[in-house]
Amino acid sequence: MTTAVITTTRPAARTALGELGICLAVVAVVLLWMGPSLYRQDLVFLAATYALVALGMYLPFVLAGSLSMAYSAYAAIGAYAVAYLSVKQNLSPWWGWLAGMLVAGAVALVLAIATRKLSGFYLAAVTLLFAIAFEHWLGDATTITGGASGISGIPVPSLFGWDPPRYAQVVAAIGFVCAIAVMIDRLRRSAWGLSLSAARENAPAVQSTGISPTHLTVVALTVGAAIASTGGALFTVSVQAVTPETFGLDLVFLAIFMPIIGGRGSAWGAPLGALIVVGVTLNMPGYQGSGELLLAVVVLVILLLAPGGAIGWVHRILQRFTSSRNQNRR
Q: What is the pTM of this model?
């Protein structure tokens, strides 16, 4: 029995060490690139926001094949929860983070149940209308949201009385994205994640095992919405203001492409795709005015030459290198 415990513990320990190594590498690379530049710190905050929204979409979109377009609304819920509770109710912003996750998850649950019989274009169209209607409601609900002018003066969350400087906030944001990526990737490899992927490919087969594909999708949409709300909360804290236009539909369209660019085979593809999107659209000298056009070209090239995204492309190169080295040894 002791041998069996050791046998199952060692792979788990190797996996945890591997995840820790990836997280440390990501933090180190991003911090080296960012340096003391305030502009690049803003870009990292934006990339972290995109990454959290993309990670929120990863479970329902990539694993379950359910394309909901309401993620701009979920991000806005997280942002306004922080703004409303901290500015208008004088509570700690941390309560806003928690409330945003709960409210976004509850809204996504109701919307998922209401649209459980829809899929493909029809699901995308209905959720897109919801996102548009929600943005208009944010502008009309003046007493709660501040109307078109939004809410400003949002404080930075303190940690046991310590107000972290800007650089520490960036490091915490990167660490938070890494933690969520690890969690989503573990969910992807869990029995629940494998059932979710199987339901996307063959729902009747999963149904025959006693597992409801509808319940799997509803849970994925709810969890994804809660994660996306943290992206809104993070961005609002970084800029200390929010308006109804802060989280427009363009955020959702960009988030759809992030796992495709980074690689759909792993949850890490979403944050990697977010970094590439921010780098291409906002950090290319001479292309700031046409960044989206350049991004469209990048997406097209990746779809044609590397369908597995950047991670899939690197994995394929490593496999070829390993295969070539093994042949030489023989």
A: 0.87
